[in-house]
Design a protein that fits this description.
By secondary structure, the protein is mainly α. It has four helices and two strands, in the order βααααβ. Helix content is about 70%, strand content about 5%. The chain starts with 11 loop residues before the first strand and ends with a strand.
Length: about 190
């Protein structure tokens, strides 16, 4: 029995690899695409937060208006009941006003329920603990006008829109993948030591 051991070390290095740069470019374009998609998600979240916030402010204004209308109709009902007591109006007039008052109250309850749902939705978007409501800190007010002309606004939106940029980056990544695959058929030169 004889055993022969031949220790060997082998090292290789490809100094001209035609598909190396396209693979790097493809990975870079894919990374850009992911960054743009993250920006899309972040912008969508901010938009959802803004819409929820302004919906709450709108509901609050609506509830305030209905509370004022309810208070006016309540006073009108009290006046009609007093007039009915002295025979100036009929029971029909009083009951018609009472019915309108109950309809207003029903609407006000519905708007209040909607307001609570909207504040819960805002709290959820803000990742607050469950059973928490997020209330706006200020009343709705005009915020100023848009100063850019429409054509400039559209041009900027098209140029900066992350969805478009993400699709362009995905296209570039696919293009570089194609170049890499084409170059994989070229010979690779390497040193072997």
């Amino acid at each position: 029995q004889r055993f022969q051991v031949h220790p060997a070390v082998s090292a290789s290095w490809s100094f001209i690899d035609p598909k190396r740069q396209p693979v790097i470019n493809s990975a870079s374009a894919s990374l850009d695409e992911q960054k743009y998609l993250f920006s899309v998600s972040a912008r969508s979240l901010v938009l959802d937060l803004q819409k929820a916030y302004f919906a709450i402010q709108s509901s609050e204004q609506l509830m305030d208006s209905f509370q004022q209308i309810y208070a006016i109709n309540r006073r009108q009902l009290e006046v009609l009941e007093a007039k009915k007591g002295i025979g100036m109006v009929t029971v029909l007039d009083v009951e018609k006003t009472r019915s309108q008052l109950f309809l207003l109250l029903s609407d006000l309850i519905s708007y209040t329920r909607n307001y609570i749902d909207q504040t819960a939705k805002l709290a959820d978007l803000m990742a607050l603990p469950p059973d928490t409501l997020a209330l706006p800190s200020e009343k709705a007010a005009p915020q100023g006008g848009w100063e850019k002309p429409l054509d400039v606004t559209i041009r900027d939106a098209l140029r900066k829109r992350e969805e478009i940029l993400a699709n362009l980056a995905a296209s570039e990544s696919a293009q570089w993948n194609g170049v890499s695959e084409l170059r994989s058929y070229l010979p690779v030169f390497q040193f072997v030591g």
